[in-house]
């Protein structure tokens, strides 16, 4: 399996792209997904995350991660295209401090959490 992931940081935040790719790859293989996968991960600031949350989820607030899944299924070329994950970097920094963990650990957690959402796995309310 190969994870093709475009990772963007529109604000110049320092991101460990290799770690994110490896974490997502490990998550997918642990779930028994061995086909090639394509997704994107975008890092945004609080203002952009608020805009996205309001536009797509109808709530005027900042959140840590939002996922935008594509239609399910493997495409004719054999690649499973999952969709997009948007992570709010400043919120990740705050949450890492609250948990007393490294920011990279929180970012990896959020990327994997977002990937689960792309796969249709949602937390219970």
Report on this structure.
The protein is an alpha/beta fold and 125 residues long. It has one domain: Collagenase (Catalytic Domain). 42% of the residues lie in helices and 23% in strands. It is built from four helices and four strands; from the N terminus they run βαβαββαα. It has helices spanning 17-30, 46-57, 89-99, 103-118; strands at 3-9, 37-44, 65-69, 80-88. It has a four-stranded mixed β-sheet. Helix 1 links the parallel strand 1 (3-9) and strand 2. Helix 1 crosses helix 4. The chain is globular, with a radius of gyration of 14 Å. The model has no long low-confidence stretch (mean pLDDT 88).
Overview features:
4 helices, 125 residues, single chain, Collagenase (Catalytic Domain), globular, alpha/beta, 4-stranded mixed β-sheet
